[in-house]
Specification:
By secondary structure, the chain is an alpha+beta fold. It has 8 helices and 22 strands. Strands 3-4-5-8-7-6 form a 6-stranded antiparallel barrel. Strands 9-10-11-14-13-12 form a 6-stranded antiparallel β-barrel. The longest helix is centred in the first third of the chain and has 26 residues. The protein starts with 33 loop residues before the first helix and ends with a helix.
């Protein structure tokens, strides 16, 4: 085989001097040591490789201008594209260590975190096994599993024997935010309670609390206890100052285990979830998501930043996943706190709606509705006295666009309506009996319909 032109075959040169005949070598002539040759070759190779490594690091042959951080670990890089230099690379150190002040946060916050126990009279606490009515609620079946809290958070799992006796119904957490004894917790923790008992660290007996104000929609409640001295408090921080990925600490009483501390990160912000229960559906908005462990009994407890400030109230965790917990942010709490303290009704946040029941269009509906494709949202029903009813929408109308923007399905239309301000006028493009119509409509507030129905 002909060797490649860019490679030279090794050439072996004979040793200098006259060739010796076999057996004619001089025993006094010293033979070169094979070990010395190997060692010399090794040292030469080490010097060459060391020199190459030094040059590669110094002149950045392979790293493209990035140096090794101290300690030999590469740093993370961020690229900021600019018009001048085509991208400026900045080194950002990686800190993979857990914060070292978790113990101090738990120690300082602990005295202000309380256990909240709901008591109900016997006639209200005999549902299901163990009388734990709180965990029979669909709220907990959906977000804490079918077993809910079982009977584990109820000290005495027995049926009441006499009418009017108080029995434990459930347990949660709260925290003191004012020295005179004001406590913040979830509304669902104290909902339906005939008596609320608060256990404060350092006190032998629980306090009997008064419910000052509560909001079903926001799932918040303020309680008040009376003491002969000032209580320790937790300061409210700003949830908007916390970034996704920041460390957070949750403290509460999961399954009755007092002052359990869990640590995680802020996983996301502005999460909306809906939780149905016996009274309706709670529409949570702007929630913080965290992977810090939250369980039944954590509800109402604080979610803290690394300054020991409350940035949210732990509210729910999905029973069908791990590391998906939710907390009501302090941005929501601060705006209504005075109303809750003074039992002033909290105005409901406007909910944009049209008043139609919608569904996607199946292929079998295309010819019957005289459509060209399945794009759009089919009107299945129209609520009386709703904006859609007043605008003249009918069953089997197909809404294909809103303000000139096409919609492919019912969810797209719902999303666009929800992003519209209440009171705004929009134009719906629809197909009725094969003909296109444009219908002006004023977006309404769903709360007005709910209030009218309640009355």
């Amino acid at each position: 085989m002909t060797p490649p032109k860019n490679l030279r075959p090794f050439s072996f040169q004979p040793e200098t001097g006259a060739p010796q005949k076999p057996g004619s070598w001089d025993p006094h002539t010293k033979k070169r040591s094979s070990m010395k040759s190997i060692f010399a070759a090794f040292m030469a190779g080490a010097l060459v490789i060391g020199g190459l490594m030094f040059s590669a690091d110094k002149y950045n042959w392979f790293t493209g201008g990035q140096h090794l951080a101290s300690g030999g670990s590469p740093t993370a890089t961020t690229v900021n594209n600019t018009s001048g230099n085509g991208g400026e690379v900045k080194n950002v150190g990686l800190d993979v260590a857990r914060p070292n002040n978790i113990a101090a946060i738990a120690q300082n916050a602990g005295p202000a975190i309380v256990k909240v126990e709901s008591l109900v009279k016997t006639k209200q606490s005999t549902r299901g096994s163990g009388g734990n009515s709180l965990f029979d609620d669909p709220f907990f079946r959906q977000f804490f599993g079918d077993n809910g809290g079982g009977g584990s958070t109820t000290p005495n799992n027995q049926q009441g024997s006499g009418s009017g006796e108080l029995q434990p119904a459930g347990m949660g957490t709260g925290f003191i935010f004012e020295k005179t004894g004001y406590i913040l917790t979830n509304e669902h923790v104290v909902d339906g309670a005939d008596e609320i008992q608060i256990t404060v660290e350092g006190y032998d007996k629980p306090f009997k609390a008064k419910l000052l104000g509560n909001s079903y929609d926001l799932d918040l409640a303020v309680l008040k206890i009376e003491g002969d001295k000032e209580f320790p408090i937790l300061p409210l921080g700003k949830a908007e100052d916390v970034s996704v990925g920041d460390w957070v600490v949750a403290i509460g009483n999961p399954y009755g285990f007092d002052h359990t501390v869990t640590v995680g990160v802020l996983s996301a912000k502005e999460r909306p979830i809906s939780i149905p229960d016996t009274k309706g559906t709670r529409e949570y908005k702007h929630l913080l998501q965290t992977d810090a462990s939250i369980n039944p009994g954590n509800s109402g407890g604080p979610l803290l930043n690394l300054n020991g400030e409350v940035i949210g109230i732990n509210t729910a965790v999905s029973s069908q996943a791990q590391g998906i917990g939710f907390a009501i942010p302090t941005s929501t709490i601060s705006s209504v706190l005075e109303n809750l303290k003074n039992n002033v009704q909290i105005p409901k946040e406007p909910v944009p709606y049209l008043g139609v029941g919608l569904q996607d269009i199946g292929q079998d509906w295309v010819s019957e509705l005289k459509l060209s494709n399945t794009d759009g949202a089919l009107v299945g029903s129209v609520q009386r006295k709703s904006p859609a009813f007043q605008a003249g929408l009918r069953q089997y109308d197909v809404i294909v666009d809103i303000n000139g923007t096409k919609v492919k399905n019912s969810q797209e239309l719902i999303t666009k309506v929800q992003a519209t301000k209440v009171g705004s006028k929009v134009t719906l493009g629809l197909i009725r009996d094969g003909k296109r119509l444009e219908v002006p409509i004023t977006v309404g507030d769903k709360n007005t319909l709910t209030d009218a129905t309640a009355k």
